[in-house]
Fold each of these.
Amino acid sequence: MFGIENLWLFIISGLLLNISPGPDTVLIVSRSASQGWRAGLVAVAGIGTGVCVHIFAAALGVSALLATSATAFTLVKLAGAAYLLYLGAKMLLAKSAAQGVIARPVSTASFRTIFLQGFVTNVLNPKVALFFLAFVPQFIAVDAANKALAFVILGFIFNLNGMLWCVCLAISAGLAGQKMQVSSGVAKLLNKGIGALFVALGVKLALAEQR
């Protein structure tokens, strides 16, 4: 249907890829554990919206530009890396956490800011665009009448799978964060550890090569 092949294989592969840890996982877990599951769900919404941008961009051929233009790839890659480094540096330089409760973060953020963090982190990551360009076409028939429509359908299936996993992750991390009562020193170390991970992810993205 719609020129889509091996749909179940696509769904299973997509689930496995979504479960793999990355910047999205770090953002969701950190916000859920520190500000509650609602904040985590807001991050999930931002991430899902960012993925939608890549779906339509890839379907319209914009992702092909990132795959063929070294300049375009480098500009988007560096912008995404800079944002991750900013998030990490902000957490590393933040002052102490509230006394005694891990659910109170070193630095809180409004739901609007959390949504934008999830959105921008995805939109400015060219690896996401290149993933869609390389992975999704494998499940579209060569003789498909409307390849762009098939691409969008598969993209939304992948995004839905990812959002279901992210929702479970946000709720689990939020509930765990509510039950964990630790000293402000431990909370501070946890947040700095998350910040350091964001910095590492930013450096990794900045050093990523176009393939």
Amino acid sequence: MKCWLRKCCLLFCTWGPAATAQAREVPEFAALVEKQAPVVVNISATRQTKVPKAPFLRSERDDGIPGWLQRMLPAPPDMLDEEEDDRATGSGFVIGVEGYILTNAHVVEGASEILVRFNDRREYPGRLVGADRRTDVALLKVDARNLRQARLGDPARLRVGDWVLAIGSPFGFESSVTAGIVSAKGRSLPDESLVPFIQTDVAINPGNSGGPLFNLSGEVIGINSQIYSRTGGFMGLSFAIPIDVAMDVQAQLRQNGRVRRGRIGVLVQEVTRDMADSFGLAQPIGALVSQIDAGGPAAAAGIKSGDIIVRFDGKEVKSSSDLPRIVGGVRPGMQTVVQYWRAARLQTAQLAVAEFAEESSLVPVRQTEPSLRGANALGLIVQDLSRDERHTTSGVAIREVLGAAGRAELRQGDVVVALVLHGAPSDIRSATHFNRMVNDLPRGSAVTLLVRRGDAQSFVAMKVPGK
């Protein structure tokens, strides 16, 4: 989640008709959750990151240099870094029976593998259709059909003070429900001028990112995206991307794999009360043009530094933060009308919106299985047991855990005793035997391992990753 459990209990004791009337006004959340929980998914994104090896973990160099001197010399390139799997969790929700899922871009950015898990425990690999960093919206696709999809609401009808509810996976606790009210609408956050955020006091924590924000009709009206915090935890301020903004972005991602935005070539600033008085405006509204691109559309339309843009494309510009959002929503190449305040009177001009030049909206995600460096299809590097170990158990010892095996919480030192496929257990005779059986499994097939750890043993279910 982008940005930076105290327990409390309140006891209310009231009597009389007034208390009964108030009790009837308390929202009924349980029925809403029962109906809408199936559309919410848990998203696990695996990234491969480089981490430095600690000096005392570096192997001794076979070059005759004493150990005390080795520590003073630069390490060889093969000792500098090693790769580790970094797993992030978030939430999302189904918007199409064909398997389309909305989430936040920061949940899946840089992921080498995406796993989507439904509340009925079904799991599917997720394919990234596209993502847009500037609005923090990503569109995923899973190969599943006849899915329950979310009903979408109209954020414009949302009122400050309305009850709202979030379903997600904070800290990995799947299908967690929190509720609160709308605190404000149309919030602009630093460096986030393209999204008119819905501010709520719904408890949102890491893992909730990308999950839906529902109104009391069970309609999704936003995507939970950010919190404001000085501690890293929830402090009563959470922000959601309005669903109409997200749906416009996903439509472009689905069609083009990227988002095209308009620009007019101006820098603007807020109009203060004193500025409004000096410019002859009755109210401090609009966006004051402080700088203009000489070759941009606004300059070509005759707009100058010192003009105050009060309306664009038929939409009122109440503050400077409104203008980038409104302009960005206009398709490049379209002719539109701009109204601005100059010399104490309202003036009008027509201009052709240009395209905002930005980095590709597609988050670079490797869609293939990461290199497993000699591991089998399950991501396990195994070795034969020693002669002493074979006196107490059979199977193969896990030497390294990568990829899918890491998510199954297998550890170095565990012993794989048997492999269960289609209900039939097969004893493991050697590392070669085990690797051959695993690598012959069809991609996407389910398999169960009987694993011994110390004196205990248990079954671990896994899936062979797809291509």
Amino acid sequence: MDLFTSATTLTSIPIRDGELAFLPQLRLPWPNEEVLARLIAETGWREETVLVYGKRHLQPRLSAWHGDKAYRYSGLQLAPLPFTPLLDTIRRAAEAATGRRYNSVLLNYYRDGRDSMGMHSDDEPELGPEPAIASVSFGATRPFILRHKVTKETLRLPLTDGSLLFMAGRTQANWMHGINKTAKPLGGRVNLTFRNIA
């Protein structure tokens, strides 16, 4: 049996002006805890400074960029590192689950509940007008917040250990998303957002 063939499929999440789907467990050849430990140990994590409303701020998390193309967001120019065998295996599993191709991945390491991601959209020109993004999470569950840019409608989706959230269509054009800080004691979490850079 093909390693990346699974009876489980993405379940659509109804959303206004966008496309969302969720898979509780991405099929991989290793248990989630091993993948998390390897991602933390094998990744060349960086603490980046980003430009927000004209001011530079230290990101409240660690990050890394792997793939075929450079990427620019919030005043950052990220030069790509090559895909590691582990990242390539996760990428192929995400491609099999979503039916899309990805040539790059942004990794974010949330060390505890104090690490976060501000509200934003992945709408950079090099992603195209309707980017497909596969967001894979390992480790502590964190609520993923989506807010409609016009109606301000808000969704909160718990991104669980080993899960995949697929965002496509006009989601990035019409919605913002982020991860809030929390005072609740939490373990580490690594999130990988696979995307295709034109």
Amino acid sequence: MMSRDINVGLIGFGTIGSGTVKLIQDNEGLIRNRLGAGLVIKKIADLDIETPRGVSVEKGVLTTDVNEILNDPEIDIVVELMGGYEPAKSFILKAMRNKKHVVTANKALLAVHGNEIFGVAGEENVNMGFEASVGGTIPIIKTLKESLVANNIKSIFGILNGTANYILTKMTDEKKAFDAVLKEAQEIGFAEADPTYDIEGIDTAHKLAIILSLSYGKSVRLDDIYREGITSVSPQDIEFAGELGYKIKLLAIAARREDSIEARIHPTMIPFDHILSSVNGNFNAIHIDGDAAESVFLHGQGAGMMPTASAVVSDLVDIARDIAKGIWGRVPLRSYMDDEIDDITLLPMDDVLANYYFRVSVVDSPGVLSRISGILGKHNISISSVIQKGRKLDGAVPIVMTTHKSRERDVQTALREINKLDVVCEDMMLIRIVDEKLT
């Protein structure tokens, strides 16, 4: 039994911050029974301490001066939930230098400055929890750090952004265009006023960078992760995907390729019978293939006030248990021992092998398909299937093809050549396919 309660300082009293306070208050007895002590929110720092948050705190808890948290020797754990790079990074580092443990949901900060932050945590002998940074309530971090610790991770496929998944689900179910669905998502609060991070795959890249470090013991530059967003996906592509037996998802992919690691994010066609195909709406999911565990699937809310607060409080309890035992670093912060983590240059996207879906609008005239297939063949791209319909869209006829395994470099070279043909009405659309049944 712990001899005292654990004092927590909270920086950022927005949606997740207020959810964290609410969860600690609502489940105080449950937490005490499982921890052997209480979690006490001693101070909350925010620039705005007047706007109602839907939770009540005792007088004197709220402050606009973050130093009342960072310099308070009685505060054991600092929770950073303000987001962004600065001043969040400075606050976290100061908290650690003052021997305080830290919990954060700040995926962007960890993806860009993780090496420095984890390094300082090691120097100061403090713990750091970041479960809420990837997948909201889904225990991805703990699974990779602890549950699968004896596994070589062969591959990871993840739907890691709820906004993008919601948009693609609505486009699929209601046959609406991207712009219309995005507007609806913004109106109901599922998409930000500026949705760039979500729809361009930047948010997903932040999460994948963290996952790569935990899975392979490698530090990666965010810009080295190949990334495409979903803005170019059309209802026409979704319809053809359905005819071919696929759904389109924004997928984060990581895989071990001999001595290198493949990492990419882009719209991906996956078969109807793939477990990720059924992940709809704003849900997140991750499919992990380990050499011993084999297939592991995690699914749940990837964002939102209470789901994310659940992950934050999980980290608080983990750290509180270590405080009670007088220990730190029982589990390495990034799964691997620090001296085993090194930098890596990811497998260049040009060298990636994949199956492909092509859609091209062409003039309805004889010999067009043979000209296109000839160019593909010249660049070592073998066609698996063809859909050629007589219907005309905007005066052109669509041709849809899928390929056997091909190299990205060859595909991009062929596409540039095809797009220059006088019979092509608009640039060829490309979507990569993940399907174990294809060769």
